[in-house]
Amino acid sequence: MVLYFIKSTFLLLIFCLIYKWNLENKKSLQFIRYYLLASIVFALVVPLFNFQFLVPQNKIVETKEYIFDQLPNIPVIIVDSVPENNISILTIIYVFVSGVFLIRFLYNLFKILQIKKSGKNVSTSFGKLIVSSKVASPFTFCNFIYVNKTDWESKSVSDAILYHEQAHVEQKHSIDILFIEGLKIVLWFQPFLYYFKRIIQENHEYLADEFSLQKTKNLKNYQELILNYYGNNQPIVALSSSIHFNNLKKRFIMMKNTKKGKVWGTIFYSLTIAVTYVGFVGIETKAAEIKKVEDKISNVVEQAVNLPQEIKSTEPISEETKDEIKNNPIILAYIKGEKSSGYFSHKDSVYFYVVDENLKVSIYNRYGVVQNEKDFTYELKAVSKEEKEKLTLDELKRSTQVQNDYQDIKEIEKKYAEAHSFVEKKAAPREGLQAFFHNFMRAFDSKSITTNDTLISARLKFIVEKDGSFSNIIAVGGGNETAANEAIRVLQTMPKWQPAENEGQVVRSTFTLPIKIKINQPLNEVEN
């Protein structure tokens, strides 16, 4: 709400300044009316929306999405709790004041309807009149002109005054007033609404004066009539358009003024402000997109750390891997003075690391489980933001193999960018994940794999199409090439999946599938 208030106030201020410079006290009255209304609508509605532009895939976002994609879903524990009563004092004040404005609006509307109900309806060449003794001085509301019963019967109501009120009826000025009053109920804290209401009502009077003078062509007599009503000091009926609206000096000046406003200059400056605002909001949204991906990664890692021990996934590091890590120190790049994050890969394993402002290092496996720092030999390297981005992109390129054909990676990356990485409902095997892995293992030909290891690992990344079929299957993270090729072959033969859904629509989505198979072991020892 605070950000919305700042944005809307800024826009209203700019449009107000444009009005003051180009249009105030000028005779472009019809244009001024619609300019003021359009300014209010734009300034109050546009800040409610964010704008995104069709731009090339952002490399930072692309890289961070890749990192996030390496962290599979972790179980979420849902704890039932009694909702807390967290209604703030500000909320109570807002609702109370809005209620007061609503009651005041309804009361003023009720008073006018009571006058209409008690008065006499008369049809004239000026329009429909409500003749009532409760009317002190002529005013207009919606399609009716209200006049005093005694004045009407004694024929003391001047035609010039009736022409003035007729203009309010024909030009639908009551709609503008009701629109502003309705906004005040919800946005009573917006100071510019009160200013805009005043200048809109002033403009209504200028328009009505102009209409009446065109009919009567007697300026001096018309000004004397207005002075008489103004001198009676009668209260103005709320929500109405009244002949003695309190801007007498300005009205007399405007009756003689012939200077036109700078219409095209106003349009140019207003469009410039609108386009500039939308452009800045688009840039802000793009920055928020990067922050959104970072938050998703952090949430997954934090969630894993807070999981009860009995449901944490485990992936112990082998002694062979520990020895290789010690012989090949890992370089952890960080930005000095900032909390930094990144990832590194070793063989077929991907690890995520965080370096805080005090150079404390935390390392997580691909399931988000904290690793023992003593199992890693690493060196910290301070780099600039540009260098950090480049290092992350280089790691992405080294970790992505497309069946030994790197030339095709750009095309596949493009296809992955077109698919959804984050969805409300992920794609899944129709027969269930356990049955899928069971069928996958049966179709996997381990005899075709040449290796001395007893454990074959592969990680497949692919797109699940809208019809549940698989496309753009690749093996990522290195590992045994023949095992990866066999895993790709088997996946291509598997039944179609249930596609992903996002915002109620079936969508194409990316999916990463880790595969581990023990060779020469009973079927029930297959791990996934």
TrEMBL record:
<dbReference type="Pfam" id="PF05569">
    <property type="entry name" value="Peptidase_M56"/>
</dbReference>
<feature type="transmembrane region" description="Helical">
    <location>
        <begin position="6"/>
        <end position="22"/>
    </location>
</feature>
<keyword id="KW-1133">Transmembrane helix</keyword>
<feature type="transmembrane region" description="Helical">
    <location>
        <begin position="263"/>
        <end position="283"/>
    </location>
</feature>
<feature type="transmembrane region" description="Helical">
    <location>
        <begin position="87"/>
        <end position="107"/>
    </location>
</feature>
<feature type="transmembrane region" description="Helical">
    <location>
        <begin position="34"/>
        <end position="55"/>
    </location>
</feature>
<feature type="domain" description="Peptidase M56">
    <location>
        <begin position="113"/>
        <end position="254"/>
    </location>
</feature>
<protein>
    <submittedName>
        <fullName>Signal transducer regulating beta-lactamase production, contains metallopeptidase domain</fullName>
    </submittedName>
</protein>
<keyword id="KW-0472">Membrane</keyword>
<keyword id="KW-0812">Transmembrane</keyword>
<dbReference type="InterPro" id="IPR008756">
    <property type="entry name" value="Peptidase_M56"/>
</dbReference>
<dbReference type="InterPro" id="IPR052173">
    <property type="entry name" value="Beta-lactam_resp_regulator"/>
</dbReference>
